[in-house]
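Run log, item B.
One chain of 86 residues. Sequence copied directly from the ordering sheet:
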Amino acid sequence: MHTTEIERLSALANQAQLDRPRLFAVYGLRDHPDAPPVLGWGMEFAARDEALFYVPDAPTTHHTISAERVAMRYSTLGDMHVTWFD
């Protein structure tokens, strides 16, 4: 490997650390007592104002701007919460 390739790979590795997403979960109980709870996990890319959210029971993946936006969207179903894993 040439020096310039090593330098470029090193710069990419550093950028990967700087731009890594924050991991979160959104969870809550629905207003209807017989409805299943909401539980899903996501990644928020703050530097890009983007988030991905996955609900395995649906199965659904959402693309939006933040974890808070995910919770707001699901708040129409009941009281939702966001927890961060970092």
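Observations after the first pass:
- The first helix runs from residue 3 to 18.
- The chain has one domain: 21-84.
Flagged for discussion on Thursday.
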